Model the fold of this input.
Amino acid sequence: MGRRRRRVDEEASARAGAGARTLLDAIATLSRSLPTGPCPEIFRRAKFDRPEAAPALWELLFRLLAPLLADRAAASLGPGAQARWVKAVLCSHGYPRPALAQLPEDGSQGSRELLLAFSWLLARGPLLEWLLAQTCVKLGDQVPTFECEVLASPGLATPQMDAEGPVDLRCLQWLMGKLRFQWQQLICSQEEQCALLSKIHMYTWGCHSDRNLGHLSVTETEMLRDPEGSQQLLQALEQENAQLEAALEWRRYELVFWQWMDTVLGACPSEDPAVPTFQPSISEHGRGKLELVAQELQALKEELQALQELLRKEVLSRRQAWETQIGGLGHGPEWSAARQALQQAVDRELLALRQAWKQGKGPSLPQGPHRLVKIEAGSAEAQGLPVAEVIRALRSQEASLEAVLCRLQGQCRQELARLAGTVPGLIWILPPGR
Amino acid sequence: MAVLLQADCARRLVAELQGALDACAERQRQVEQSLRVSRRLLQAWEPAGTTALEPPPGSETKKDPSPACTPNPQDIKELELLTQALEKAIRVRKGISKTGERGRTPSLKPGSTALSPGTTASASPQSSSRTGHCSSRTRPTKGILQTKVPAKHHPEHRLPLAGNRSPVGIGAQATRLEPNHREQMTLSAAPHAAETFTLKEKGTLLQLPMAFRKVASRNSCLWTRLNSTQTSDATDATSAAKTQFLQKMQRSSSISSSRFSAVEVEMEAQCLQKACALLRLRMQEELSAAPEDWMQEYRCLLTLEGLQAMAGQCLHKVQELCTALTEQLPGPCLMGRPLKASLPCGDRVCTSWGPQLLLYSSTQELQTLATLRLRVAMLEQQVHLEKVLMAELLPMVSTQEPQGQPWLALCRAAYSLLCEGGERFLTILQEDPAD
Done:
């Protein structure tokens, strides 16, 4: 222990000796591994809270928080909206410094605060790795994903909507119908795409230089068909390699950066606790999802209370019945051993139950990038996740979501029936098929 | 009958639905884009594409940088003669020894490159018969493994070429014959317009360009390193420094560190929903069981007691979350579905970052997977929309005066949207009070 500490100290002092050079290297490496690759000078200026560094850092944070969205939506969102979005996301992830929310959204100041926010993200988890995985060049064919929050524009509750004034409920019904139709269409297109993918995989069987992959992907085949496009792909891949190299190198320099960040944090004037934390710079628009969560929690609370009450009664009566019937019989050592064994078995069972909700069941789809590989049925050589396993996990996910939807619809049915029950002379004829 | 929604309520609901529609449309656009690409690949490749199917760029001679683009009749004639000669050579060669040949493959490679790009053989009888037996799936795999060998031994031989050639050169090594023929001839479909390239017939002849293979393999190496050094390289000192930084940041803040963030509240709430459903299910199982002996009876009792305790713990957690929600900072609020897994957090560390392989064996399996995935996404969206609609419509129904046509129309519309997903309607008969 002591030795390790000494070693660490030695390392630290050695690095301190190397001085500013190492810090510059660290920041340069970090900057090279980031998607927007802000100029290293930005970081230094941010330490001194120089206003000119702020726009680049807002942009960086936006890119980090919405990696897949950036290209398309960044253009459509102005810097102000981007800044608002960054604030909202950081806040919902529990960012501890209220000073961030007070920053003006025009990017005119606050570079130090932004540097702190960036470092906070970086310190919390493997940000660079995650980011690289999100933005990596997709050479392989993927299972079509559907991530609303990625695809749709960032969901900030905004006041500007085309629907001004009252709207007929039939408009909602029409939109719902349209949505259902779009889903059907999507499923059909997707099926066709899968069939084509499978064909391409079969026809290029054995063409890949990587033995594990075997066949080509659409991107790779397309690259052979259209060499012009392949140049771009190659460049993108080379760029990714450079980022990966930088990310690997960063791990060696990281410590210096954190020591430096410590001084940045030290340079911040401490907050005055007397000042009321802050004035929200943006008026709140409508109800956000927190309100929905609050409602859900309320419903959950009631449900759990009912459940608990039911269990309490049941346990009470059974315990009494047990005591009167059999309780008197066994106080011997055999019984106490049996009882202990039973208790342990039950504990184990309930622990498993608890784990079932703590972690999802079975393997879900890989969160990051993945590549579809066609294998011959029954071949055991290939390394990877069998689709059959993912299908199983998705089926159970499907079932539980169906149950949730069903429960919610049931709640609505009850509630509406209750409301309608107050009106005499109404006959409800439910639609067929239920 | 028109049922008007108030402006703010309408705005929220329309925004939610529009968001869902936009997401769907965006996805549809993406699928159609990939459908276009895939369909084009499965059709006959156009000449512009087939010009890429040049011989392997081992040719130091570089006589003609773009031979396949400008075939003239004279060349074609010569080519045919040469093709015949080569075919003959192959027949003779085949007769000799195959085993010796394999060993010599690397050294023979330069020989093949001595052929000028123009002297490629068109799709010959050999190649088509070969395509025939390549459709058995194991052979080409072996074949490609063999072709890899020379490439590895002579990387320096081909790399510069890939680098300094025009973009066409990238696709240059596209098509190649299998190893026993490879060193003599390469296939180019270009000179013969009749010999169009289709993936179905000649897909197995494709080969990735060397430059690409090199960059791609470097890429996968780097991903492997990124995964493997993740834990070992992150020294104690670094992680200590990070923790210290986070703590110091927290201390400098006026916000208590113990509170849940909005994202955490959402995730915990989801988890508790699941817990509640599981507890209920387990309880029902226990209550409906008929114990056969006193042991089972006692066990049942213990289980119910355990469930009761767990329900209590869940309730406590719900209370905590409710408190945390009220402590949320005011500010811009996010709309839409939960931001699940949108950022890496300490406790949800992914073990592997690089591209993972997903193995499937049949088209049907792939289709099932894709459809299920969409179905799950759709259900998630439906559940979210259901909650949003419930929050808006139920209060509307309950606060309006429960009489008259407008109220009935509202009830009917609300019933359809809330209970039937908008798919079916209910019929309401009103008895005439006079009857």
About this structure: The first strand of chain A starts at residue 167 and ends at 168. Chain A touches chain B through 237 residues (CB under 8 Å). The longest helix of chain A spans residues 227-267.
